[in-house]
Write a structure and sequence with these properties.
The protein is α/β, with parallel strands linked by helices and about 750 residues long. Helix 9 (about 260-265) packs across helix 11 (about 290-300), helix 19 (about 645-675) packs across helix 21 and helix 20 crosses helix 21. It comes from Desmophyllum pertusum. It catalyses: ATP + H2O = ADP + phosphate + H(+).
Length: about 750
């Protein structure tokens, strides 16, 4: 999936996936099945056409007649500010205690709280709820909640918002940003004229996800109950009927996701003519999810003299551009630093491990966590499939786990979250759909089973714990496949004064050399004239440019049929880690020759040797040129006179078996001469245990002690692993040569 899991969208993948997934005609806006290719259009029918294709080719993609440009049917209003009815924005009355504070006291408070403000005539912060000059209907609710004092973002944000100023608030997760804009919105609404039939909401809150929208709506209902302020939450994935009826009754606050709101506006179920208070919650997340066109379309429907509040956890260039376009003379408030920061009340533990160790480590960790009195845990995975599989295994083993992700229906997601809040299911497995906006105050542990695509998502994931004034703990399984993110993760840990795992520092140093600025990182310069493609380091995403469709959902390999040029061809399946490349063509068009020698045939498929310097395309592994062929066996016997077909086949099989036995004896003798018998037996036993035990990865470093470095040694080790394979050749065995060392990897 793409760097975020959002249910209603898709993962565009790499450029090669967009261009050559389905063979001929597979452009980024259309389809075409090609000649025997596997897939149709680039993304099917959900991205401006597509479709067609299939195993036997098909029809080219057609222009989709659906609305692929949300908001294209909305007419941009021509605003005349002189003709618009006036409204009140400046509602703040500075408390006497705030007036009497000196600038030295204010500066000391801001320095102690790491509060930075920018802008013209920034109001002084308040340090008590009474100093914010809220009406009694707001203060009564605050007292019932039992809060002692406002958070830092609330202390500075309330005076600015109540003054009618545009505002940008940057603060870490769990800092109370929701109340920072809901209470000023309620005060703003109660100072405007009452709604008339046909009027839309006065305050609009845009959220990136339905979970965050529901959280904001719950807070809005709680604090607006005393003042009779009505609110509605509209989002995709739920029936439109109840949402439309709520809008038609009239609501003062509308909390919405951009897509569903545009649907309502285009259907004329509501309007934004009365909207004078706009909030963009988690603005950075909405831009990352690609909602910028929708946001701009929605803002065009709102009068330009509105009050706009933008809240975010980070301050990237995209958010800065949006603020400069739609905010006027705004106050910029930052709690902490502008860099990527995590909540300092979270204990962050990073475990550098192998991919195969995750399941075992997770079970051991949960055994310790479930022994605690506060054990509510949130486990994050990278994909929806991984979340379902992990939940299924955990429930099978008796763990009280539940799962949510973008493909779950909204009623199911609501029920799961409710069970998690009540504690009936203290373990929740989720994708990034819950990384922001999931405001459950008593989450004690966050476990990153899969590290996210970027450190920004990591910060928001662990921010689900340590809400308000609580503390929490995060555990992260960090593998070599996440090496690219090691540097950013170290920066986050150091900024939060957390212990940095020495293994993580070592991995960051190694990744610096491995993922440098060189554009030719897919070229193996050590192999003479050799090239190889690989997927992203330890990951399943690929950057291949060669053709042919495939079943793995990734980019195309040049395997099967006429692959290699993106012009169709058969498919290559990587689901069972076996390759089907019996008739591939290399980059020069020459047909490959199959080796029929010895142990190569025992892998269950023919091993093809590329002619003319073609590419060896494997996924999830490094590959180089194949080892030299084994020495020829005894010369083949002279052909016998013609015999019946059955006898000829039996005789050929016997000859092949004899030839293989002779070659294996030669290999065994060569290896016995190079290594002591104990070493040979040890490697044979390790290989047998590796395959029978179903370990996902086993690496051995084997130094060749002979001066001539005979290839028999390498092939003998290969024979050992093949001999130990009890699964009919389904295991993929890759040899990687590095000077005198031989690294053997088994993917089960």
């Amino acid at each position: 999936m793409s760097r975020y899991d959002r249910g209603r969208s898709f993962d565009p993948g790499s450029r090669s996936e967009r261009k050559s997934f389905g063979g001929r005609g597979g452009g980024s806006r259309g389809g075409g099945g090609g000649r025997g290719g596997f897939g149709g259009g680039s993304f099917g029918s959900s991205f401006r056409g597509g479709g067609g294709g299939g195993f036997g080719g098909g029809f080219g993609g057609k222009k989709d007649k659906l609305n692929n440009n949300p908001g294209q049917f909305l007419r941009k209003p021509k605003w005349d500010l002189d003709a618009l009815p006036p409204f009140k924005k400046d509602l703040y009355r500075e408390h006497a205690n705030v007036q009497n504070r000196s600038m030295q006291e204010i500066d000391e408070y801001r320095r102690r709280c790491e509060l930075t403000v920018q802008g013209r005539n920034v109001p002084k912060p308040v340090v008590a709820f009474e100093e914010a000059s809220f009406p009694s209907y707001v203060m009564d609710t605050i007292r019932k909640e039992g809060f002692q004092e406002p958070t830092v973002i609330q202390a500075q944000g309330w005076p600015a918002a109540l003054s009618g100023r545009d505002l940008v608030g940057i603060a870490q997760t769990g800092s109370g940003k929701t109340i920072s804009f809901i209470l000023p919105a309620i005060v703003h609404i109660n100072n405007q004229p009452l709604l008339q039939p046909g009027d839309g909401p006065v305050a609009l809150v845009l959220c990136p996800t339905r979970e965050l929208a529901q959280q904001v709506q719950a807070v809005s209902s709680q604090y607006g109950r005393n003042s009779k302020v009505r609110s509605v939450c509209i989002y995709g994935g739920a029936p439109k009927g109840p949402q439309i009826r709520e809008l038609e009754r009239g609501v003062e606050i509308c909390i919405a996701t951009p897509g569903r709101l545009i649907d309502m506006l285009e259907g004329r179920k509501t309007n934004l003519r009365r909207c004078t208070f706009l909030v963009l919650d988690e603005a950075d997340r909405m831009l990352d999810m690609g909602f910028e066109p929708q946001i701009r379309t929605i803002i065009e429907q709102i009068r330009p003299d509105r009050q706009t509040l933008m809240w975010s956890a980070t301050w990237p260039k995209e958010v800065q551009g949006l603020a400069s376009d739609f905010l006027r003379d705004y106050v910029h408030i930052t709690v902490g630093t502008l860099g990527l920061t995590a909540n300092h009340k979270i204990l962050q533990i990073v475990d550098v491990c192998e991919e195969t160790e995750k399941d075992f480590k997770l079970i051991k960790l949960l055994e310790e966590i479930m022994g605690e009195s506060e054990n509510k845990s949130l486990i994050f995975t990278e994909t929806k499939k991984r979340a379902d599989e992990l939940t299924r295994r955990m429930r099978r083993d008796g763990w009280p786990a539940m799962c949510i992700h973008g493909d779950k229906s909204q009623p199911e997601r609501d029920w799961v979250l409710n069970e998690f809040r009540k504690g009936n299911a203290p373990i929740l497995v989720a994708t990034d759909v819950a990384s922001r906006g999931l405001d459950i105050s008593d989450i004690k542990f966050v476990i990153n089973f899969d590290f996210p695509n970027c450190s920004e998502d990591y910060v928001h994931r662990i921010g689900r714990t340590a809400r308000s004034d609580r503390t929490g703990t995060s555990y992260t399984f960090f593998t070599i496949g996440n090496a690219k993110q090691a540097k950013d993760l170290i920066s986050v840990l150091k900024e939060a004064n957390q212990h940095v795992n020495p293994k993580l520092l070592t991995m960051a140093e190694q990744a610096r050399g491995m993922f440098g600025k060189s554009r030719s990182r897919y070229r193996d310069k050590s192999a003479p004239g050799g090239h190889f493609n690989r997927s992203s380091y330890g990951d399943s995403r690929s950057d291949y440019r060669s053709g042919g469709g495939n079943r793995s959902g990734h980019s195309s390999f040049s395997g099967g049929g006429r692959g290699g040029s993106g012009r169709g061809g058969g498919h290559m399946s990587t689901a069972n880690k076996s390759f089907n490349s019996n008739r591939t063509q290399d980059s020069h068009g020459g047909r490959n020759q199959s080796q029929q020698n010895g142990s190569w045939n025992q892998m269950g498929s023919q091993q093809n040797n590329m002619m003319g310097g073609g590419y060896n395309n494997y996924s999830n592994s490094y590959t180089q040129q194949a080892p030299p062929p084994p020495p020829p066996g005894p010369p083949p016997s002279q052909p016998n006179p013609p015999q019946p077909l059955m006898q000829q086949q039996q005789q050929q099989q016997q000859q092949q078996q004899q030839q293989q036995q002779q070659q294996q004896q030669q290999y065994t003798q060569a290896t016995a001469a190079a290594y002591p018998q104990a070493t040979y037996q040890a490697y044979q036993q390790q290989a047998t245990n590796a395959v029978q035990g179903k370990y996902s990865k086993l690496q051995h470093g084997l130094m060749l002690n002979r001066d001539d470095h005979s290839p028999y040694n390498v092939l003998e080790i290969l024979c050992i692993f093949i001999k130990a394979d009890n699964d009919g050749g389904k295991d993929m065995i890759i040899l990687i040569f590095n000077s005198l060392a031989v690294t053997i990897c088994i993917h089960c």
